[in-house]
Amino acid sequence: MVLFPKFALHKTSAQYALIIAAAILSACAAPPAQNTSLTSKAKSASKPLTQMISAANPHAAKTGQTILQNGGSAIDAAIAAQLVLTLVEPQSSGIGGGAFLMHYNAKTGSIQSFDGRETAPKSSHSKMFLRKDGNKKKFYEAAVGGSSVGVPGLLRMLELAHKQHGTLPWKDLFQPAIQMAKAGFEISPRLAGLIAKDKYLKTFNQTRAYFYDVNNMPKPEGTLLKNPKLAESLRLIASGGADTFYTGLIANEIVDTVNEASQNPGGMTTDDMEGYQAKDRPPACMPYRVWLVCGMGPPSSGGLTTLQILGLLQRFDLGKMKPFGAKAVHLVMEASRLAFADRNTYMADSDFIPVPTLGLLDPAYLDLRSKQISPTKAGGRRSPGMPRLQAELKYAPSLNEHGLSTTHLSVVDKIGNAVSMTSSIENAFGSRMMSGGFMLNNQLTDFSFTPSKNGAPIANRAEPGKRPRSSMSPTLVFDGSGSLVMAIGSPGGSRIIGYVVKTLIAALDWGMDMDAAIDAPYFINRNGTTDLEKGSRLEALKPTLEAMGHKVKLISNASGLHGIRTTPQGLDGGADKRREGIVLGD
Hints:
Elements: E1 8-9, H1 14-27, E2 52-55, H2 58-69, H3 74-88, E3 98-104, E4 110-116, H4 139-143, H5 154-165, H6 175-183, E5 185-186, H7 189-197, H8 205-211, E6 224-225, H9 228-240, H10 243-246, H11 249-259, H12 270-274, E7 279-281, E8 284-288, E9 291-295, H13 302-312, H14 326-346, H15 357-360, H16 363-370, E10 407-412, E11 418-424, E12 434-435, E13 438-439, E14 452-453, E15 456-457, E16 475-478, E17 484-488, H17 496-508, H18 514-519, E18 523-525, E19 530-533, H19 542-547, E20 552-555, E21 562-567, E22 570-575, E23 582-585
Parallel strand pairs: 1-4, 19-20
Antiparallel strand pairs: 2-10, 2-23, 3-4, 3-11, 4-7, 5-6, 8-9, 9-16, 10-11, 12-13, 14-15, 16-17, 17-21, 18-19, 21-22
Helix pairs in contact: 2-3, 3-5, 3-6, 6-9, 13-14, 13-17
């Protein structure tokens, strides 16, 4: 019999407790994974690694490592690394955007999820991304400019988490980013490539002056890029706290930048900025075989959809199947179709929409849905199910999630506290507008561009104060004794969910170490085509999967998985070689 600990799910409602208890009872009968051998790099280390950070840029990882070495907590390291990412990875995330953060407190067993997702200004409305003729705008027609900018949530969220779990002073966490912004950093190959190919960075004066030289040419790899404006913004926030960002000079400049944009001016106000609140929400947790997997609930769809996919696969013994073989890939794709059908219909900001979380994770519901999966034949496009307590919503379309922005970092400190945080400004370089030395997000284009279909409202339509649906999937995994097993996550738009699921299955069912699980080829189905990583060994599966009824597409989107797992020999980290991150540990 598999026994799970009584995790302290912070501020978890009775309903969440019931669904977790029901899922545990169901999982007790589930077979354990068969392939549990580990080939961890930590085994060959001279001494076990007891603290670690995996982040999407070497500067950020080194900053986080220094914070850990100086006695900082996992939260401290995550904050300092994220502030550096604001500078060195401006295409992906920053204080002008938002984030979701999962935290594990090793002393108390508390699992928390922090919501720093952007909110829509009061001026927003359900038809804001429609043209005058009623047709929806094209993505870049809507994303570039002021009207796509949501009220940034990152700093309020980081401050909330720091007050509860920080060890070092708030102001000390800003110093590395401030000093680097003053001294400058060399433009990396990835950043240089994205600057060179972006069609919209020249649209606004501040952005053009920052990323282009005096001859109006994109600054190349190796250019020393200084950002004194960001250094000054960070200095103010370091001394005055997040309030300094949401009121006063910085907030006024953000509002002016949004409202005076030469393209798509917005309607954000200083009241919108001052009124932003980060939230400490209940995590979404469910057993998967002998593990407990926890992720973000709404307004992210990442946690629920990931858990649904795993739940739909419970009755299939993936551990006995060939890793990344046609049979296993087929089953994961079929489970993904069913989960995405529910995601696109029922998941949105739960402060506005009655998301049927209990029903979506009900083991009986997932078992019933799982019976629609044939081991040998693709089921085609799936319809949403009828979960218990379902919302009265009929349809929600897929989003224009481009996934070139967004970043993920994972941290474990010496005490065993863990952070899994995914942060974003949505599209690469966000709205293409800068304010105070940082990029402003375009997260409002994560809302559905159309408010209804066939007379039924769409769950993820834009509304004042609402948080757009996300696919960010920061995830924590635990074993039956309550010990941390893994912290993982990725950028990638709605494909994030597939990247994370692939890695979880590779590590848990197939016993791969963290690096191997991250580097393994991805395969994704969002209730449409079965997407296989182009240039990987999975290309060889194309004829077999097509014979099973899959419409196969080869794609080359770059995931950015960064994860840490625990082993008897110490911590084992991985950084996605498709991007430029690294893992550092002591």
